Amino acid sequence: MTKPLQHQGEQAVQRRAGEGHSGWGSPMFDDVIQPPFAQFLRQQRLLLLGASDAEGAVWASAVTGGVGFADTVDRHHLRVAAVPVTGDPLEQAFDTERAVGMLAIEPRTVRRIRLNGVAQRREGALHVRAEQVLGNCPKYIQQRVPLEDAADPGQPVAEVRADLTERQRRWISQADTFFIASHSPDHGADASHRGGEPGFVTVHGARRLSWPDYVGNSFYMTLGNLHLNPSCGLLFLDWEQGHTLQLTGRARLDWDPQRSAALPGALKLVEFDVERVVEIRRATALRWALAAPSPFNPPLPTPRDQGR
């Protein structure tokens, strides 16, 4: 797929925010996996994916493996020796070539890179052709250290619902991290990271969430896609137990300055309506422990602040 030089969604959000300039965002990045990025990818055991399923719903997913399970074939291609687990909404998505957003994140060193392109499953592996490769800053990444893998995690078990259970709502309301997938028909897919203090995601009942959009790099790759296509997917990891919680739905930006002013560090808010929920128990054998929150995390409002 040949992408347009400019991303109209990114430019629209940048104009509304009063940030960025012509060419700032997707047009800045090419399809070359430079040697430092290739080395970083080979060291990772966790990759986050973003893609749409056969019905057009957008999902965020995770694949895991041993060191070296993601390795470059050449300067433009990556082979990932893993596919989404049984029950994952993207389990069969890559049976045909499909736009994919990929995020490689190393919680221990709070480093990350994004690789967007197209992927197809062949012989139990994902074969990815890069179209955009870029590094991201460490903002809002909580530092986590790897623990010993679960000795026998058992088979993944998936549960599908139309809304969130009470337990799932508590999971989200206590989370300090989630991953978001977005997709524009003309610009491809993207997978990105969001982080903050536990409680930065607000749960408004069984089918609605919201979170603050904090200061970033002004590329607006995620929000630019959402401007053109509100369908998106969220992924919450249970870092200690290896479970995953995947949501698909529709997002919209709330530019109300009064609402943003009530949340320290917020430039705007994102509201998300849940359309489907997939929880997978024992999705991965990997385990992490929280070492330190990100020093960039804005504080959450106090009850007194919220009552003003």
A few lines on this structure:
With 308 residues, the protein is mainly beta.
Walkthrough of the structure:
It comes from Streptomyces sp. 900129855. Residues 164-263 form the Pyridoxamine 5'-phosphate oxidase N-terminal domain. Residues 1-24 are annotated as: Disordered. This is Pyridoxamine 5'-phosphate oxidase family protein. It holds the Pfam family PNPOx_N. By secondary structure, this protein is mainly β. Helix content is 14%, strand content 42%. The protein is built from six helices and 17 strands. It has helices spanning 8-17, 35-43, 166-173, 221-228, 257-261, 303-306; strands at 46-52, 58-64, 70-74, 77-80, 98-106, 111-122, 125-136, 143-146, 157-161, 177-184, 188-195, 202-203, 208-214, 231-237, 244-254, 266-281, 288-292. Strands 9, 10, 11, 12, 13, 14, 15 and 16 form an eight-stranded antiparallel sheet that branches. It has a seven-stranded antiparallel sheet with strand order 2-1-5-6-7-4-3, covered by helices on one side. Strands 8-17 form a two-stranded antiparallel sheet. A hairpin with a 4-residue loop joins strand 5 and strand 6 (111-122). Helix 1 packs across helix 4. The longest helix is centred in the first third of the chain and has 10 residues, at 8-17.
Write down the overall mean pLDDT: 94
Major β-sheet annotation: 8 strands, antiparallel
Shape: globular
The ordered H/E elements are: HHEEEEEEEEEHEEEEHEEHEEH
Number of helices, counting only DSSP H or I runs of 4 residues or more: 6
Gyration radius, in Å: 18 Å
In quaternary terms, these chains amount to single chain
What helical percentage do the residues reach? 10-25%
N-to-C CA distance: 50 Å
Runs with pLDDT <50, length 5+?
A: none
Beta-strand residue fraction: 35-45%
Number of strands: 17
